[in-house]
Amino acid sequence: MIIRVRxxxxxHRVEVGLNDTLRILLExxxxxxxxxxxxxxxxxxxxxxxxxxxxxxxxxVSLGLKHGDMVFANxxxxxxxxxxxxxSNNTAVGTTQAPRESAMRVQQDAVDCELEHESGLIPRPxxxxxxxxxxxxxxYCLPIEPYDAAYLEEHNIKHMSFQAYLRKVLSDHxxxxxxxxxxxxxxxxxxxEPEYGVRPKCPGAHAPWPAGICxxxxxxxxxxxxxxxxxxxxxxxASRSVVDTLLEFWRVSRCQRFGLMYGRYEVSRDVPLGVKAxxxxxxxxxxxxxxxxxxxxVGPELDAEVARADAAAAACGMQLVGMVFTxxxxxxxxxxxxxxxxxxxxxxxxxxxxxxxYMQEQRPSACRWARAGRFGSKFVxxxxxxxxxxxxxxxxxxxxxxxxxxHRADLVVPSSVPSKMCVQEATATRYVPDVFYRYINEYKxxxxxxxxxxxxxxxxxxxxxxxxxLEPHPAFRATEPFAVENRQHVHNVQTLGALKRHIVGxxxxxxxxxxxxADFHLLVYMxxxxxxxxxxxxxxxxxxxxxxxxxxxxEELMAMSGWQTLVLMLREAADSELDPHGxxxxxxxxxxxxxxxxxxxxxxxxxxxxxxxxxxxxxxxxEGSATSCEMCALPQD
Length: 637
Known about the structure:
By secondary structure, the protein is of the alpha/beta class. Mean pLDDT is 84; it is low at 81-97 and 581-609. β11 (288-290) and β12 (293-295) form a beta hairpin. The chain is built from 16 helices and 23 strands. The strands form 7 sheets. It has a 7-stranded mixed barrel, surrounded by 6 helices. It has a 4-stranded mixed sheet with strand order 2-1-4-3, covered by helices on one side. Strands 6-18-19 form a 3-stranded mixed sheet, with no helix packed on it.
């Protein structure tokens, strides 16, 4: 019999036998469609691709196909040959492989693998309309899907979790419940990130962009709308000291501060199939601080600092989960701050939105159900600002996948109005498609407006919840904190002398040593000295990550040769040699800071007379003999 197959290459007439299986039909169809393998072909009964034929070993007759029937075929996007591999995507896999092989190579986060084993169904209690017995169910008490619209509206969930959104997409392909198994063969991966740039390798017969363009490589118009899902649902700070350490800098200097949050991702039970980012520590990279903002140089220097912090976090089983910054202005009333971020002003500035898009783009989330092997990002952004009561509060955000795509295509730029994002002008090398957004006008009607020259950044934001645990059990539990990095101008300096006082004084007890080592800032500084081997670093990480066995791990650490060498060097060196201006500190890349002053734990302590000191009001570095600042004339104390 003859089966008609309609594909993007045209109509094919394939002759098969009555007892032939579906796999034989695909093998005969593969050379006609120029598919790499038979498994790369997606065969459906309808043109919309909703009813997929995947029973490869079943005969065509048993599938209901008869002579003259027409089916629809397409080659999976992840299996189409590519003229050039995508080198900028580290999580993507080879585009010439079948979807099943591509999905097997993607290493997802542990929290995603854990959630894939769950069905996600939401149980419901017995309803008053139920008339059945205790062991039966009906439409009133049957469990509902995690993406049920009525449930989300009832519980005021504005954005469903990513795993719930994934289940909604897979339900269209008849895949429900536990999705932890292998991706079905001959299955088109459903997730794909938006792309608003010109296709680099166009199959059309014209010169590459910007010399030529056609409808195949030209991006479509962009219509901005609220993203229905979010990659992370909640941000949980392991303890209040994590935020208080960041606020301490503002309380002393009245300058804003920026930090990178380290922790882990866990399952959140507050929303169906939810994910939460647990923040254990905040690393403060080199930055210029002002009363109205911070300056962070994004480049090789920042990458080197982040690499050192990443290594310390990885040893403790953690990773970079987001960034946090302060935006605080004292109010006239003592103890209060101004309420600046609200519905009548802005929640997040366009500059912060672009920085969040850049950071999320640098840290994509691996997903085996996405055609590129990546989908969105779990990187979160937190802002510490004032609330309506004059207190200090935290807001958590992410930018949408559309915001990442617009940043990737260089379509937007921050504006002077904090709540507006500008659309770039088209140039000879930059193609800018039409950008629209929808809003409700004064007549309660949905209206489409042109986003040029600027549009509200609310269309690019995804709101998250935040909080603190009722019973905190932080991983970094040191009672005497080590000096925080890059706080030289408030007389808080990390030195080998401070390291000696922390380490040597705790060597008499393994319990005390384990408590001292549970300090993220201490670990980053100590690992940056490059005096410990991989075994010692791994053991220190186990001291932090295994609190129930921390004392035993500390004893094992004290017996290691690399640790004993570090302790011997600290004991033999005099305190004067461990001063920031001494030979030992000057020879160390981590302790050779250009800032003056000793490693005082209190920022209000005056600097030594013989040393230069930084003004705590304007950060100007004065001569050691001066008692008042030469720049602002304020006293040193």
